[in-house]
Amino acid sequence: MKKLTPAKVEQRVSDTFSLPKDVVLGLFNMHILGNQELILENYKGILKCEEELIVVKTKKSVISINGKNLVIDYYTEREMKVKGAIKQISFE
Question: Which domains does the chain have, with CATH numbers?
Fold first, then answer.
């Protein structure tokens, strides 16, 4: 029998019990409205917040949001909203 990695176990649990993958796997969820607004759920922290660059840490990656006049409109423990002229989103 093959040994399962923790990631594979999480995936199987999510599939077997029909649980939301973002919660079980620790994935982020992103909603984008045109190039003007971005709502990010399940983030861990804000690493950088500047007018042209916002960098956010999630459980498994780092998200960079590039643009102009970027502001964090609001943030809670679980969700944040970025507004401005979003030009690029990259994942590391």
Answer: 26-91 (2.60.40.2000)
